Amino acid sequence: MADTDDLIGEIEALGSKLAAARDSINRRFIGQERVVELVLAAMLSGGHGLLVGLPGLGKTMLVDTLSTVMGLGSNRIQFTPDLMPADILGSEVLETAADGSRAFRFLEGPVFCQLLMADEINRASPRTQSALLQAMQEREVTIAGAHRPLGRPFHVLATQNPIEQEGTYPLPEAQLDRFLVQIDVEYPDRATERDILLATTGATGTEAHQVFSPEDLIAAQELVRRMPVGETVVEAILDLVRACRPGEPEGSKLAAEALAWGPGPRAAQALMLTVRARALIRGRLAPGIEDVIALARPVLSHRMALSFAARARGETLQGVISGISREVLGAAAEAAA
């Protein structure tokens, strides 16, 4: 009983701290509460986020604000077609000492930080994109045969322009799967855009302040993994993920008709972590079915693909996921819609 009381106390204390962090972020990143919630959920779950949105919607400002509020050392990489893996990871250089002796010295690349912003990641070549794979999954890189650990915690927030243009390279499925969530950043409504105008075009701007430290974030990530998850929520996650796999015995008829492939076990793991994080952010002690429904699109949409026939019919992944959610989760999903 004492252990349960301690856990409840820790969850409530962290909830208050997260509320202060959200307030600080929202003062600069105005009117995008859902985006902020999803990014925080990804970080609390120890994962990475892919921000998809048109230019000028504040994605870079969000990452800059997050580094301040969460107390993380950050670097930014502007991805371009001529960017090379060594520009991200670092390289060894041969130096000559005063006595004439020579030795190799490793120069760290920008990946050696705690929060990495990969700006317009789909503009780099596949070779360079793949340089992030090991870093994102294993939190270390191997250069010249040496394993070099990255910062702790380590998170990648990548941005991607949804407009298809010449000179862009779609992210491979293996790298997409490394992102815990895909976060769609949409146009603000009129009232929000008015608030942005007034807040950002004056003589002074709103500054964010630090709420977390790296140690606080690591402790929060450990607490998320200790949060209880009811059997009903576990079964809902399994039902939803397995229903999205075409050709599987438990696959939905809609998945068989519309999807080329579906999500793997990593999607279920991502849902299991992010539903806990969302409940924590919203001041609850345990996740519910509503969290599974709310996170279905961000967690699943980049882990599946429409079939050619479905694209020809004009279907969307968002619509397919919503349809499967209603089919599998029933009345709860209908109410959420």
From TrEMBL:
<comment type="similarity">
    <text>Belongs to the MoxR family.</text>
</comment>
<protein>
    <submittedName>
        <fullName>AAA family ATPase</fullName>
    </submittedName>
</protein>
<dbReference type="InterPro" id="IPR027417">
    <property type="entry name" value="P-loop_NTPase"/>
</dbReference>
<dbReference type="GO" id="GO:0005524">
    <property type="term" value="F:ATP binding"/>
</dbReference>
<dbReference type="Pfam" id="PF07726">
    <property type="entry name" value="AAA_3"/>
</dbReference>
<dbReference type="InterPro" id="IPR003593">
    <property type="entry name" value="AAA+_ATPase"/>
</dbReference>
<keyword id="KW-0547">Nucleotide-binding</keyword>
<dbReference type="InterPro" id="IPR041628">
    <property type="entry name" value="ChlI/MoxR_AAA_lid"/>
</dbReference>
<keyword id="KW-0067">ATP-binding</keyword>
<feature type="domain" description="AAA+ ATPase">
    <location>
        <begin position="45"/>
        <end position="189"/>
    </location>
</feature>
<dbReference type="Pfam" id="PF17863">
    <property type="entry name" value="AAA_lid_2"/>
</dbReference>
<dbReference type="InterPro" id="IPR050764">
    <property type="entry name" value="CbbQ/NirQ/NorQ/GpvN"/>
</dbReference>
<dbReference type="InterPro" id="IPR011703">
    <property type="entry name" value="ATPase_AAA-3"/>
</dbReference>
<dbReference type="GO" id="GO:0016887">
    <property type="term" value="F:ATP hydrolysis activity"/>
</dbReference>
